[in-house]
Amino acid sequence: MQARVAGLVLAAGLSTRMGRGGSKMLVELGGQSLVARAARTALEAGLAPVLVVVGHDAERVRRALAGIDVETVENPDPARGMHTSIALGAERLSAADALVVLLGDMPLVTADMVRALVSRWETASPPLAISLYGDVIAPPVLYDRRVFPELLALEGERCGKRVIERHRAEAAELGWPETALIDLDDPADVARAEALL
């Protein structure tokens, strides 16, 4: 039976540095919102189901996902940190064999990158398949169900990175161009991303 690999798109953040008032997930890039782009990337990569964790400006973010075959869940307290969204997603996706975490504000992550992580996991069955941009570890990251209990127990800053550090010796690592690491934290980042697309 084929392994079931779910997608978890984190889109609940407060977007304070973007200076727009609303969620940065609604910023348009290449003709679509950031959150829609991330959701479509997950679906194009073959992840199923795909769950989008919303929080700040939740209703408008949900509307931006209209017509896209994803589920949403609202994080009631996104200000506590990203770990709350990861734990919420791991709980909802607990029936999956693995899940891939993507950030809504990393628009240069492609479906091919996600597929490569899944392929490496299917071949070697590591507890993690991680993305490296130079020396930086960042999403997308694939978590095997063996580490789901650790995701459910996440607390505090850097908690997701602690799970990675704990299993780094056994993890599959895939390297990507450092330019793909761009995340959109302020308006200048949006202009740079547009130029790179």
Quick summary of this structure?
With 197 residues, the protein is of the alpha/beta class. It has helices spanning 34-44, 58-64, 82-92, 111-124, 148-152, 159-167, 187-196; strands at residues 5-11, 28-29, 32-33, 50-54, 71-74, 98-103, 128-133, 136-144, 172-176. A hairpin with a 2-residue loop joins β2 and β3.
Provide an overview of this structure:
The protein is α/β, with parallel strands linked by helices and 197 residues long. Helices cover 34% and strands 23% of the residues. The strands form 2 sheets. A 7-stranded mixed beta sheet has the order 5-4-1-6-8-7-9, with helices on both faces. Helix 2 (58-64) links the parallel strand 4 and strand 5 (71-74). The chain is globular. It starts with a strand and ends with a helix.
In spatial order, strands of the major sheet run 5-4-1-6-8-7-9
Helical residues, percent: 25-40%
| CATH superfamily annotation | Spore Coat Polysaccharide Biosynthesis Protein SpsA, Chain A
What fraction of the residues are assigned to beta strands by DSSP? 15-25%
- CA-based gyration radius: 15 Å
Tell me the major beta sheet.
7 strands, mixed
Blueprint of the fold:
Layout (H helix, E strand, L loop, with lengths): L4 E7 L16 E2 L2 E2 H11 L5 E5 L3 H7 L6 E4 L7 H11 L5 E6 L7 H14 L3 E6 L2 E9 L3 H5 L6 H9 L4 E5 L10 H10 L1
Features:
alpha/beta; 197 residues; 9 strands; 7 helices; 7-stranded mixed sheet; Spore Coat Polysaccharide Biosynthesis Protein SpsA, Chain A
